[in-house]
Each structure stands twice: as C-alpha cells, then as structure tokens.
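[worker-b] picked up task from shared queue
[worker-b] task type: protein-ligand structure
[worker-b] ligand name resolved to adenosine-5'-diphosphate; SMILES cross-checked against name lookup, match
[worker-b] sequence length check passed
[worker-b] input payload:
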Amino acid sequence: MNPEADVLLRLEGVSRSFPGPPEVLALRDADLTVVRGDYVSIMGPSGSGKSTMLNMLGLLDRPTVGRYSLAGQDTAPLKDRDRTRLRGRMIGFVFQSFHLLARRSVLDNVMLSMIYGGVPKAQRRQRAWGALEQVSMTHRAAFYPGTLSGGERQRAAIARAVASEPELLLADEPTGNLDSGTSGEVLEMLEGLNQAGLAVIVVTHDPEIAAAARRRFQMRDGRLKEVL
Ligand SMILES: Nc1ncnc2c1ncn2[C@@H]1O[C@H](COP(=O)(O)OP(=O)(O)O)[C@@H](O)[C@H]1O
Ligand SMILES: [Mg+2]
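[worker-b] inference finished, payload out:
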C-alpha cells in the first residue's frame, strides 16, 4: 500500500505574486493535495485568486515561491516544451466563456485539442466522436459554435477538454454564462466524468456545484482554506 501513488498533485507553500507597482499577492502560501479521481470545488469573491490557482495547477503559470508536483514529479525544473506536453497529456480545461474556435466546427474544435494531447492523428476523429457522445452532442458535430446555445457550447467545450482522456479537469466558472437549468446539465456532466475516474477541480459561484464536490475550499485574499 503506497498512498503516495494515489496523489495526483500537491502544492506546498505556493505563492504567486504579480510585480506591480503595486505588487499583488494573488496566491499566498497554499497547501493542497489532490488524489486521483478527486472532486474539489473552490469558491471565493472576485479577485481572491481562484483563476491564479487554476492557472498554476494547469501549468499555465509558475509559482513565485513553493513547490508544485504533478503525478509525482516536481514541475519546477520542467522546460516550457515539457510543461506543454504534460499539460496536453494530463489536463483538460473548461472556461466560463467556452473558448471555442468560431471558424471551426464542433468536431474540429474537439479534434484540434488532441494534437496537444498527443493522440495519434488516425485516432482523433474516433476519439472526438466518443467525447461528443459522452456529452450528447453528436447531433451538433458539424455545427459552428456561433449557432449553438450556451449550454451546447459548454458541452462542446467539455468534450474538447476530455477527448484526450486527461486525468485532471480544471473548470473555471463553467456555468458563469449559463442559466440555472443549463448549469444543472453541466453539473451532471462533471459528476459523470468524475464518477468515470477523472479528477475535477471546479471554481464556481454556484453553491449547488460547490456542494457536489467531495472537498470544498474557499479563497479569500489569495488564501485557500478548506471548508470542513
Ligand atoms: N497577470 C496578472 N498581472 C497582474 N495582476 C494579476 C494578474 N492576474 C491576476 N492578477 C491579480 O491577482 C488577483 C487575483 O486574480 P484572479 O486569480 O484572477 O482572481 P479570481 O479568479 O478569484 O477573480 C487580482 O487582484 C488580480 O488583479
Ligand atoms: Mg477568475
């Protein structure tokens, strides 16, 4: 029995400051351990550091102080190219504003993400189709994002995030642009993906989404605190 093998990621004393002036301490001395298949929610007011935290976890940003290890390896010595590769292989992102390419079909949006996920070309179409099936979006595969409802766009974005079968899904206010009915659908999808083994970290203002997580955190002024 080796509990370390279950650890997906770990932050130890991580801070992130943005040099000013004025200097902003966006993340202060964060400690966090997330196990494989975990389900974590983070709430907090605007400006409290939630996106900074997700950017750090998603290897889009680096700590100014402290240590971040992902899948057992310290991320500090990794070169940008290796960080990009690790991110593509292990991490899927979902954003509030969907971030779909407007001039590409839904299917192309999902397929393109797999280039970074290291999925061989021959498998991309099939995997994209499978991901669209998971979010009940195959009937929209040929549509352009601009012709879809908000909920459909977010489902397409979720398909894109999971198509390369990452271990970790990072969602930054995924229902921030959706009405409550559609938010419920997105919540069900996150829960289904988590039950299938994906670790989920969701930043949200929606108490219902936060409550669905196995562990809940609150951020305030750059400090992360578990809600017990
Ligand atoms: N690239 C940046 N440069 C300077 N300040 C930043 C940058 N990104 C975020 N900040 C600041 O860090 C703080 C936390 O921001 P953010 O993580 O986006 O908060 P949240 O997502 O909780 O609204 C804010 O004060 C914000 O202005
Ligand atoms: Mg934010």
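[worker-b] attaching auto-annotations
[worker-b] The chain has a mean pLDDT of 94.
[worker-b] releasing lock
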